[in-house]
Fold each of these.
Amino acid sequence: MRSTRRRTWALLAAAAVVAGLLAPVAVSAAGRAGSGAAAPLAPEPEPSGAECRTSVEGSRVVAYCHNPYPTTDLVRLHTECARWWDVDADGSAVAVQPGRTVKLEDRCWKEVGSAWVSHSVS
């Protein structure tokens, strides 16, 4: 009977030592597995919007916008003139269909201060 008890205690002691050594590994793995399940990643939005290239030559502004994506993009050219008395302009919105390119133009009386294109994906 004594040899069975010794063997049982030896096995219990060995199991306790192994459990003590493996506990930090198990907790770490559970934390990694639990963090992904508790907070699912948000889906990435599909890319959209036209790519525009704007150039200024003297008092004229030209922008070419190409839309490589499957959604329509509304683009608008904004021109800010350098002189205080020159009227700044916000062009009307133009729809850029998928796979199409549009040309936007504007001008100032004298030189252009800045020009940019705004987008509104529909």
Amino acid sequence: MGKLQLLIMNVLVVFLYGACQLPQRPPQSSTNESKHKAQDLPSNVTFFGGGRSKEMSMVSGKTDTIFISVHQADSVLIKIKTPTDTANVRISQLFMPDGSADGPFGQELAYRFKDVGQYHITVNENKMIGNHYSGPYVVQIVPIVQSF
């Protein structure tokens, strides 16, 4: 295999890996009414100690761990918001009460919590992108409105 073919293969692998890392977003409703309802809905999923919004500060190269309490099975969207949309901050893993883990994710994670207990997420920079970020970010838990 020639050097050019090897270079092309490496570029394709990096591109495909990056494409797989894009966050999957749940369908968005176009009405303000449904967005307003989601914010007012009680949630069975909160941050440890209560609340559905947590202000954090990222230090480049460090990983933040955020604990989540699930009181009853529920579906939520966990979002990371930064002052700029280009900040390199993501939910890297979700750890379940049984010790298993899932990830990596992007800046949003739609998840159906089935088991009651303590979960936690880790938040850090995406090392594949390489842009360093230090600064504020907010993590929010937003109930997903189920329509039947």
Amino acid sequence: MRLPRSAALNERLHAAVPGGAHTYAKGDDQYPENLAPIITHGHGAHVWDADGNEYIEYGSGLRAVTLGHAHPRVVNAVRRELDKGSNFVRPSIIEVEAAERFLDTVPTAEMVKFTKNGSDATTAAVRLARAATGRTPIALCRDHPFFSTDDWFIGGTPMSAGIPQQDVVSFPYGDLAALETVLDQHEPACVILEPATQTEPPQGYLQGVRELATRHGAVLVFDEMITGFRWSEHGAQGLYGITPDLSTFGKAMGNGFAVSALAGTRDIMERGGLHTHHERVFLLSTTHGAETHSLAAAIAVIDTYTEEGTTDRLHALGDRLAAGIRDVTTTMNVADHVQVRGRASNLVFATLDTDGKPSQPYRTLFLRQLLGGGIIGPSFVVSAALTDDDIDRTIEVVADACGVYRKALDADDPTPWMGGRPVKPVFRRYV
């Protein structure tokens, strides 16, 4: 498989853009050498690259495009707003409509403020928590891979160059005793975590987190960038019946359009407003936070989810895909090494070596075989636009990939099938 036009475009990107992409997770280092396609367009669950290749896509837009590319309901809603203007000196009527529609859908929240990305929303939540409690430390879940581009999070990753020491402590997911120790020793302003990730929360865990945060006077923040809408249209908080003090939403909310949200209880959120007796918090003030077409996209997404049962469809597609992959990995005798994990609406895959340890070289082999079969994606996260034929084709490609994987395991060396250097983790100190 050769991608000459994509290769030339990648060179141009690296000359103009640090990292060659505007999101590290989209970098060409995340793909096998010389197999990092540059996308020209997409429709539904399919995308096309600059070399004319068509792919079935997973993890679309880093989990943002859940309805499929160019979804007609979303596109038509956006088009209706474009001719009206996109940004004004005062709030537009669609800001009222979008806020009320969001709060109707996420009834555990009492107020909402929109912005353009998840990092700004989570940092705003941290700022509110610090103002509300008068404390500085932040307690975050170490098992969740990403919260923000801001210093309070990136300072704890291997890519911490240029960031001073941050007052942040971490705790493992699923361990209430460990969290209680952190709360006892550090008295943090907030506890921030994703309500769920690759595994379901242990029985009673989220209830316990809620109780511990309340008892210790810490603000409970749920990062629902991924779980929001994918777990249910009410968020994971609605599914599990837990009300956080603050929560953040994004990704699926705009089906690819730039919109995210900070939501929460009125008494905390209003500290960033005009009806408070407390010292005011400079919360979120973004020129483009209320672009009309992005809010129109959000309303269309919410309506689609609630009226068409999109979350149920995502789970049904994921269940079908996971079952098929598990069947072929068992048949090909690689079930201990190629594993599909997570909630059906948010499937990821693990590539393990002969010792059962996560392996970037084996991941490279696997991704290379998928790309050669017309499948692109760093995960198996489904979109609602996938068809049964797409799922069947994916399972066929995975079966072929598992045949090669088995050969590499038998040889105890994936190198002959990697095609070059291994793919790399996003967070690393040096190139």
